[in-house]
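Final report, Chapter 2: Outcomes

The project's central promise was a pipeline that accepts a single protein chain and returns its three-dimensional structure in a standardized token representation, suitable for archiving and comparison. That pipeline is now operational. To close this chapter, we reproduce one record exactly as it appears in the project archive, with the input sequence first and the structure output second.
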Amino acid sequence: MSNNKPKVIVVGGGASGMMAAGKAAENGALVTLIEKNNILGKKILISGKGRCNVTNSCELEEIIENFPGNGKFLYSSLFSFSNVDLINFLHNFGVKLKTERGGRIFPLSDSSRDIVEAFKKYLKQENVTIIKGVGVQDILAKNNKISGIILDNGKEILGEKVIIATGGASFPGTGSTGDGYRWAQKLGHKIIPIRASLIPLETNEDWIKELQGLSLRNVKILLKTERAKKLAEGFGEMLFTHFGVSGPVILTISRKAVDYWEKNSKHLILSIDLKPALTFEQLDNRLQREIEKFSNKYIKNSLGDLLPRKLIPVIIKLSGIEPDKTMHQMTKEERKNLINILKGFDLTVTRPRPLTEAIVTAGGVDVKEVNPQTMESKLVEGLYFAGEVLDIDGLTGGYNLQAAFSTGYVAGDAASKINKLDYWKT
């Protein structure tokens, strides 16, 4: 019976690939994992600024809702290997976790290395053969049936099951260079055009560099066209950079910006409500109290209770108020202008950053051609897909890594099972 063990080749040693390889081996398959980097889990290591937002504590239905890209395709995989299953898996390998705002789950140590080490232990425990530092040149198939792979060095590895877990096309330095799309297309699969998802946005204003490094919490943002048509809105934390804006709430709405920009190549307006908890009238009352409190101080030195220090000179400049006026000299009209800017601090979005800087790639292997219950190709027997190479993409919050682990689990589980016909042939 030992000769009947299926030979499974997993291409890609990231989140989905390590999970797929471990699960297939756990089920008794002979598994070879190939990673062209010299280390496993390279993208995991840099995720969440090195902290790794590994999953989210919310209900599975909510996880699916947080996938603007084909969330419903993930039903089977998420129910087969849920966020609770992932948490228990990591606990079993000694990883302690913590839950932060928005249900985001991180290693207690704040180190993504703990996640990678847990999976390395899993692979070792299940006797997975690991080949690092060499890429895959091609995937072998005959009569729409997988037979193995060819490495970049020309060596052939035979196997009746191949799982493509090569990631997307973002952060190519981690190994995600779009190889999986090329192989899938060559084997007859349709590739939905790839584009950036969860990407910072570039803005046009000269003064943006003055705000570099400034983080704003609890702001409301509205993304709209130049004709004021609303495209997206959000609430949360954002960050100013030397080129524009980033941060969780910006990344969340960025997919809408990318889709619009690719179709229209026109500028967008990002309107930031710096004080969303206050109405115009409430903010006016608050400002009048500040005027009374700092009556004889210069305006430029008197808004520290309302705004971060770095933002004050920019806001004053945009409002047209003379900064060397004292607070009690501020006119009613100037006060109104100031409040309008605080409730609608507008930036001109010129374009998203390049795809190579995206946290996640939208587009990929058309999920209509993949069985959601097994991750197996509907076109090529023995070919499976897992993770970001598929046309699935979620918002920030741990959803994308959860999808990678869940689809990897399902692909590894299904690929490790012997087809009844093949069994009786042996």
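Archive annotation: Residues 420-426 have pLDDT under 50 and may be disordered.
This record, like all others produced under the grant, will remain available to the consortium after the project formally closes.
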